Amino acid sequence: MTLPRLAQMHASGEKIAMLTCYDAAFAGLLDEAGVDMLLIGDSLGNVLQGRGSTAPVNLDDMLYHTTCVRRGVKYAFVVADLPFDSYHVSKEEAWKSAAALVKAGAHMVKLEGGGWTTETVRFISERGIPVCAHLGFTPQTVTSLGGFKVQGRDEAGAARIKRESQELVEAGAAMLLYEMVPATLAAEITAASPVPVIGIGAGVGTSGQVLVLHDMLDITQGRKPRFVKNFMAGQDSILGGVKAYVNEVKAGTFPVDAVHGF
Ligand code: KIV
């Protein structure tokens, strides 16, 4: 999988299936199931490290898991999260963090937020590392956002997401990712976007979908977000569950906006 192929999928309306992945064993299995993109998400803080948020995850954690995933993958495009406090102080610091993730095996890095991140995205992209910009609900800043809240519901919020998306793409972002935004807003932006748009809790109208692996395999304990579906239901193997996810994303039958959307 390559960036031009992902851009072609976005342009032709072929859906992109993405999942988080943190180790070589799952990377091989997700590859076999036909997942297009693997995200070494800083959600590993929650699902692997048992932490309450992604903020304590550090660059060394991300480098370790990126190395593991890259060893197991043959086909999928590998995206790694820039963790909290690894890109905030300066563009130079952000470049160093992004370059370390690329050396560990990432094809692309992801960072959270718009506005202040625009010049950082420009700096990293111009120097040759593709960047995915994560907008809407941004888990690294959950405290400032006042909790797990849908973003862009009101006119001002929606206008801000649209403006920041455009600025980020103009600055060189090769992909956008929206978390917990209204389905209508994500679909409208996707239709006009020159780059692929991945959604999580952002409706069926994006170029593709991502879920946290442990959520869709129903390993995560307790209450799960509305946008999660248990793909192990009715399956007798993990490979079967992941294939069911890929099939539903590709067919446009997951998510169902009325069930999983906002
Ligand atoms: O860290 C992560 O898993 C993510 C997804 C929620 C998109 O950023």
Automatic annotation (TrEMBL):
Associated pathway: Cofactor biosynthesis; (R)-pantothenate biosynthesis; (R)-pantoate from 3-methyl-2-oxobutanoate: step 1/2
Any one GO cellular component localisation term in the record: cytoplasm
An MF annotation (GO) of this entry: magnesium ion binding
Residues that coordinate or bind Mg(2+): 42, 81, 112
Details of cofactor binding: Binds 1 Mg(2+) ion per subunit.
Residues at the active site: 179 (proton acceptor)
Residues where 3-methyl-2-oxobutanoate binds: 42-43, 81, 110
Cofactor(s) essential for the protein: Mg(2+)
GO biological process, one term: pantothenate biosynthetic process
Subcellular location: Cytoplasm
EC numbers on record: 2.1.2.11
Alphabetic keyword roster: Cytoplasm, Magnesium, Metal-binding, Methyltransferase, Pantothenate biosynthesis, Transferase
Catalytic activity entry: (6R)-5,10-methylene-5,6,7,8-tetrahydrofolate + 3-methyl-2-oxobutanoate + H2O = 2-dehydropantoate + (6S)-5,6,7,8-tetrahydrofolate
Family designation: Belongs to the PanB family.
Quaternary state and interactors: Homodecamer; pentamer of dimers.
HAMAP family to which the protein is assigned, alphabetical: PanB
Name the UniProt record assigns to this protein: 3-methyl-2-oxobutanoate hydroxymethyltransferase
Lineage, top ranks: Bacteria, Pseudomonadati, Pseudomonadota, Betaproteobacteria, Burkholderiales
Originating gene: panB
